[in-house]
Amino acid sequence: MFKFFKIRTSSNANTRERPANVEEEHTTLHESDEEIFAQLDSTVFKRFLYYASPYKKAMVVATLAVIGFTLANLSLPLLIKLAIDGAIQDGDTNLLAVVAIALTVVAALYWLTNMLQNILITRVALTVLYDIRADMFLQLQRLAMSFSDKTPIGALMARMFGDVGALQEMLEASIEIIGDFLTLIGIVVILFILDVQLAIVSLAILPMLLFVRLVWQPIARRAFLRMRRNSSIVGVYLDQNVTGIRVIQALNRHRENHNVMGRKVRDFFGSAIRASRLSGLMLPTVEIMTGIALGLVLIVGGNRVLSGAIEVGTMVAFLLYVQRFMEPIRSLTMQYATLQRAVASGHRIFELLDIPLEIQDKPGAKPIGAVEGRVEFNDVTFGYNPDRPILRNITFAADPGQTIALVGPTGSGKTSITALAHRFYEVQDGSITIDGQDIRDVTKSRLVKLWEWFCKNHSYFHSLFWKMPGLQHVLRNREEVVGA
Most buried of 77, 153, 256, 450 (most Cβ within 10 A)? Predict the structure, then answer.
């Protein structure tokens, strides 16, 4: 089993080949669930299957296990019918023993195939999620600073964990859906083979059940989307309060923020309760329909047994099959909500993965050699919003060994100048050069090594100070830290 799986040791969200129909115009993330839902189609399933394609052997074995599980499930009522009509009524103890052994074998097959499909599909799902999260992480590391500036961290965390988890549900549900459809088809075929009249009576409730589902489906869809949106809102606000705790404490806004958080949590709680109620409403409805179908089978089937049209074992098999027929219908009804959440989550995930990199190496970019260190800004214009530049026609030069102080009020562009020198952003006009060479003609990997970046907004990594990114080749041990 384990030879089916091999986790990729490296992941590249941008060199990884994508389906041809994926558009590349995405630059921002949608936050409206209705907007996302409007795009629902088979694209997410195709993209997800693309990630699952390296594990198709395991998927095939899991599908075969589902088929075996379905056959075992369908054969049990037939064996019981055989025991009643062929063994008990005729007093054939040998046949009864054979049926008992067959029931034991089928029960063992039922258990074995169920366990096998669960193990395989869970393993495939977790491995695929590993690949997707690895690609998402690499994509987030490579996206331009402009993306991070306008995207809440909470929204990204919701996509990285909540939405990816929903895709696991989709993969597990897809295998269950295959089994449910096979079960439904198999039961319908067997019912009509056993007795056409009783089969028509047994399936008479289907139109009513389909009508109820068509009414329930759009209402439940809106409820689940509202719950997902409110969950994202809570996550974003929680992240803002945790990362901005110093400001909150400095301004003594504990009570105000607590009240705001309470309102957002109550909104989420209310939407979650409504979605849960709608989910719970469908199950009793199916149970009622099952009871009606069983009652019809008892009345019509009992009369046909009394008239000699069918045998007792046939009616018992019908009762068992009708019960089994409603189980996949219940499952499919609930799996629909799971697929809705998963497809919406898949759109959010692949929307992030499809954002093109704004800052990449130009064709022909080369790693610059040894540098003296003269940095020049030549008539540079830049703005985080292109329509509102904060730097206009900036020109200056910093010679090797020279110290230049950038003085100005908050928001005047001091940090932006250093960020432009690192090429965290692209200039709108003008150029920045190092020893006369435009930094856009230098590979990013080489450009990063020419600078050391000390931020005014600190980020602490769980590591020793001198092992933090950007310092590993500067401070190698405790003695050098003390000396610095």
Answer: 77
